[in-house]
Each structure stands twice: as structure tokens, then as C-alpha cells.
Amino acid sequence: MNICGVFPDAKEGQLVQNWLSSSEIEIQLWSFDQVADAALRSSFEAIVVSPQLVDSPNKVQQLSAYAPVIVVDDNPRIEKAVIAIRGGAHDYLPTHPVDQLADRISSSIRTFHQNRQQFDLPIQIVGNSPQISELRSHIQSIAPTDGLVLICGPTGAGKNLVAKCIHAASERSQRPLITLNCDRVPPDMVLTELFGDSRDAEPQGRIASAHTGTLFLNEVGSLSLDAQARLLQFVESGEIRQYPSNKTFAADARILAASHRPLEDLEEMGNFRKDLLVRLSQFVVTLPQLIERGNDIQLLATWFLAKHQKKFGKTNLELHADSLSLMSSYHWPGNVRELDQAIERAVLFCEGRTVLPQHLAIVADEPEQTESDHSSDEYTTLDDYFIEFVRANEDRYTETEIAEKLGISRKSLWERRNKFGIPRRKTRIKRLHS
Q1: Quick one: the chain helix, strand, coil %, rounded to 5?
Q2: Residue 49's closest CA among 121, 110, 129, 105?
Q3: What string of DSSP letters covers 317-352?
Q4: Gap between the Cα atoms of 173 and 207, Å rounded
Q5: pTM recorded for the entire structure
Q6: What is the Cα–Cα distance from 319 to 421, expressed in whole angstroms?
Q7: Where is pLDDT greater, at 371 or 346?
Q8: Cβ-based neighbour number of residue 398 at 10 Å
Q9: C-alpha dihedral (206, 209, 213, 215), degrees to nearest 10
Q10: Is the confidence at residue 53, as pLDDT, over 50?
Q11: What is the pLDDT of residues 233-245, one digit of tens each?
């Protein structure tokens, strides 16, 4: 059993190492600054730390990005245990009696892995928030099936990673995963990319390449109606039909699709086929925005810090407490992708050992303003507030977003629009996420 030990007091670390020497636990002692680099070279089952680290802001939280953290204390107190667990530790153990320490550590590690077993995936999704735990569970449930999956979420939230996870956890994992970024292909080339050139003796498009494997259609909402019709035909028949020859070829490709725009909105505007939407929505996976994931921001920041240190040949960098605070208060419109890029930029330009707020090149958000210039106190009834809110924001948000901000369903929004005579502006330009 390979574990890491982090003890600011070298004598304390050596003492714990000696206590565990007769057991099956091999503990490697590292300084806090060395753990990130060590974790890239060796996979630890746990990180055992001194209670001194609990007193240092965010250090336990940062270490938990690499492995479960177990605090061992020769002077245990209930209040110290509470602080340690709240700070991100998996467990808090007394060191005495010494002959039981190895067994307690082993038991704690087993408990951790038993609790996480249902979430284990071949490709790691970093995060401990309830949303990410639920996401892992959902992926684990749908991956073994051959069902179609629609992956929804804002730009930069990780839709591509989720598609890779679903494929890697499926029975098709040893077969190809073929990706088509639908929004990056010229409209007149989409059909050729998907189905191949009709002059080819055998189909050469992405569907044919994904035979027995998985086809991931990123930003599927960008497909033309003609391409949607052809895709629906393939989904229903399992055949690639070439035009104008009408020759058909059987193909077995599982379809995963993703969109940062609600396809229901595109369907209502006449830009997406309802029958295809129904088929693609056999399973729906929804990704949260990064700002909704709480402490995952710090976990991801630490993870990206280790990744980019290795990329640029740097070691022993740490995130300043002010940097962690800034990242927690920033709203991250670009989500996980923006965080990754911010940390990469910080590692590149950091000349010392500490990543400071200025290295991140982000600015703390101002206090959130209300959606319009009016406060709810100015309205005599909730109906007045509803009418004003919809009229003030219908050019800023989609129907789905308006419903979410009002805390009602899309159906209720539609019913209230009819009740108050506020028709949707079908011709208005939809706000696109950047």
C-alpha cells in the first residue's frame, strides 16, 4: 500500500514512518511543495498529514485533489477533527495506540474506495461536489447501454470529457471514438463529413469510421435541417444511404450528441427537428456551471497546477491563499476550460514559487445586480413582477433561461405568457453563449 506523508516537522514524519515500517504500508515523506510533482510520478492511495497542515488555509483542500487526506494526531480533539473534515480531510485518526495505526489507516482507505467505487470511471472527472458525484453515477449507469445520449451544458463545462468517459466505460471502449465538431464544418461539407462522398465505392465519412464504436457530434444544433434529416434516417435504420445512387451500407455506431444551446429552443424556432431531438434524448446528461460546484474550483485549480508545472518543466509551485479566494469568488463564464487556461497562463508567467492573483489575469466580480432596474418591492403583485421581468429580459435570455430564473417550468412560462398576452418574439435574435 503506497501512501504519501506530509509533515512540516521532519521528526514527526520520521516517527510515523517508523511506526508503519512493520506493516504493509509504505509511506513516502514529502514536503507540501513536492506533493504535486510526486503525485504525477506515483499514484498514492492516501496522503497522511500532520494536524499542523489543518491550521494552514486551504492546504488540506489542495492535497485532496491527489488522494484522500488522512490527518493523524497524537493529541486528538473532537473540535480539531471537525475542523479537519470541514477543511477537506477524508478522516481524522489518533496515532495511539501505535500498533493499531496501520490497521486504522488501511481501514480508512478501504472505506474511501468502497464509497467511491460506484463512481470509478476509466477517465477521471475531477471534483467532489454533489453535482459531479451525481454526474459520475449517471455516466456509470448509461455507459454500458447502446442508447443515444444528449450532453447539455454551458461552453467549457466539459461536454467533450463526458463523451470520452461514456465511451471509455462502454463495451465499445476498444473501438474508435470519432468526433465531429458540427459548428466548425462548412455547411456544404457537413453531409460529406458525415456520410462520405457518393462517388466512393465504400462510405468514408465519420459514421463509417465509427462503425462498431462511438460517434460524438459536438454542437449538434449547428447541423442543417437537411443533415438532421439524413442523421435521423441513419439513427432509425442503422444504414448509410448514399445519394443520388441510393446505395445503402450498414453501420453500427452509437451516437453521442452535445449542445451548449437548449435544443428545445432551436426546435421551437424551427431550426431543429423535433423527431431527431426525441431520438437523441434517450438519455440526457446535464453539466453544471463551474461556479455552482463550490470547492471543486480549488480542487481543479490544484489539478491543473500540477499538469501545467509538468508541461513547462516547473516544480514546487503553490497557489497563494489570495489566489484561491479570488478563484472562488470569480464567476468563470468560460467554466472549466477558462480555469484551465488561467492556471496555464499563471504557471507560464510565475517567476517565483507562489502563484499570485495577478498571475491569473482575472478580476473579482462586482456584487450581482438584479435582472432589471426595478426591485421586486416596486411591484404590487407577483404577476406585475412576472410581466416586467419577461419584457425586460426576453431579448437577453432563452425561454429555458427565463423559466429557470423565475423558478418555474417552461410550460408554466408559456401558460403565463398566454394569460397576460405576452407573445414570444419569434423573429428576435437568440443570445448565443460565448
Answers
A1: 50, 15, 40
A2: 105
A3: -EE-HHHHHHHHHS--TTHHHHHHHHHHHHHHH--S
A4: 16
A5: 0.64
A6: 54
A7: 346
A8: 21
A9: -10
A10: yes
A11: 999 999 987 766 6
